[in-house]
Amino acid sequence: MRIKTTLLTAAAVMAISPAAQAYDGLYGAIGAGLSYLDGDTDINNNSGGSGTPQFDSTQEHDLGIGVYAAIGYAYENNLRAELEFSYRNNDIDSIDPDGGGFSGWPTGTISGDTTSMAIMGNVLYDFGDGPVTPYIGLGTGIANVDHDITGTNPGGFPVQNITYGSSNWQWAYQGIAGLSFALAEGLNLDLSYRYFRTRKKNLAGTLGGGPAAFEVGHDPHSLFAGLRWDFVPDRAAPVAPQFKDCWDGSSVPVTAECPPQMVDNTDIDLDPIQFTVYFDYDKSNLTSQASDLVREAASRALANDIDNVVVAGNTDTSGSSAYNQALSERRARVVRDALIANGVSADRIRLEAYGENNLAKPTADGVREPLNRRSDVTISFE
User: What is the DSSP letter of 374?
Assistant: First the structure.
């Protein structure tokens, strides 16, 4: 009971952490870990509702295993809703004496296990959207709890033999607290604690060779490690750059210059080609539109003698400064690689990365802004 109280208190303390915007879309999750049943899990012989009970005691169980799988939807307000299937199994160790006049069934005199399979609807809240994110949640649903227990205590008093077991569905609920660690874009490691509980249920069995009825509790604690992955990219729609038509039939962003027209004077200075590649939130891969833009710009540039190319990666202010610096470097590199793939010499390209320090549209810290998720490219000619 002390373990349960301590962990649930820790989950409540997490609620004071600041929140930030998060992934919006479908996700899946799987996990496995340890299942522990309280040493004070109740069991009593209720005499079928009549007569005097022969004992009111507690069960001890060995440390067991648990697994879960879930599918859910994450919202930008940091809430998540999911449907979870879980399985837990614990072998029984003993039924303890409850005082004088009852010997119980010590270790070695009783065997069997308790298994539960549950379908739960969970609501969770993530405190932030960084490399390490605490979260808490509540769940409710139904569980099939199956007891299959047999005991024989040669020196037992007042009874030596006991059997009980059945399998039926009943209402269940759980509390959840955990930490999520970002492993890669759209992939997280979840470490979680779950306190799971069902209503006590009445079971038929035998006691001392005669029919008996029992009331048995079930409230395991679980420590799980699992993976959670996003099914679809972030839904925040980037602002599509506007294009204009040029003299040669090509189209370029309105902020970029059209390719210079060819004139007889070969000594004329060519204006640089400038364009911007935009990215989805927290992404560094090129969209098909961005790939076409890079390919077209490289084709126009290769018609002249390229002096140098500067690719500058940038991010918005959502996320930490260190994380955004690394993200801006990845965005610059992916554009450089696309230029090289389209024929631009690698030794002509210089990379710059500004993180969140070169905003096209100034915003407060922690704000997603599509215009700031970009790589600016300038191609100069000899």
Answer: E
- Residue 277 banded pLDDT, cuts 50, 70, 90: very high
The better pLDDT of the pair 259, 98 is held by 259
Name the residue among 380, 309, 322 with its Cα closest to residue 351: 309
For 301, the 3-state DSSP assignment is: helix
Tokens matching residue 244: 């204009």
What percent of the chain has a predicted confidence (pLDDT) above 70? Answer: 87
Question: Which has the closest alpha carbon to 50: 161, 208, 202?
Answer: 202
Residues of each domain in the chain carrying CATH 3.30.1330.60:
243-381
CA 31 from centre of chain: 11
CATH 2.40.160.20 in the chain: give the residue spans: 2-230
What is the residue whose two structure tokens read 């837990």? 88
Q: Which of 129, 298, 313 is nearest to 230 (CA)?
A: 129
106, 144 contact by CB (below 8 A): no
C-alpha distance from residue 229 to each of 23, 71, 184, 257, 303 (Å):
11, 10, 9, 41, 44
The verdict on domain 243-381 having CATH code 3.30.1330.60 is: yes
Helix (H, G, I), strand (E, B) or coil at 62: coil
The label of the residue with tokens 């202010």 reads 317
Tell me the pLDDT of the chain averaged across its residues. 86
Q: What is the pTM of this model?
A: 0.57
* H/E segment holding residue 275: strand 273-278
CATH tag, 2-230: 2.40.160.20
